[in-house]
Design goal:
Elements (H helix, E strand, L loop, with lengths): L5 H21 L3 H26 L3 H31 L5 H4 L4
Length: 102
């Protein structure tokens, strides 16, 4: 047995991305959609790190560092929006987003 190769990492990354995409498309709760988007982002990060490792350079890992930094800012803004939606409508369903007006 040769061990774990690049294909294995890319298959896991693709599976995680598909699970996240399925969650975004089928769910109605904003919180679950948000978690599914984060899962998709982490799947892309896994693919970048795997490609970087197997190519022998650090370019993908540096890109993942910046992606995680941006994701941290996204989490704070996204959760603030979800909390504001919940306070306004007492639910976190996507349908309630279209009825919000200034």
């Amino acid at each position: 047995m040769n061990g774990v190769g690049l294909e294995h990492y890319l298959i896991v990354s693709a599976a995680l991305f598909c699970i996240g995409l399925f969650g975004v498309v089928t769910r109605r709760s904003v919180l679950v959609i948000y978690m599914s988007l984060e899962l998709m982002l982490n799947a892309a990060n896994l693919a970048l790190v795997a490609m970087s490792r197997f190519n022998g350079n650090l370019d993908g890992q540096i890109m993942v560092f910046f992606t995680i930094t941006v994701a941290a800012a996204e989490v704070s803004v996204g959760l603030a929006l979800i909390v504001a939606l919940y306070r306004k409508r007492q639910s976190t369903h996507v349908e309630d987003l279209t009825t919000m007006k200034l």
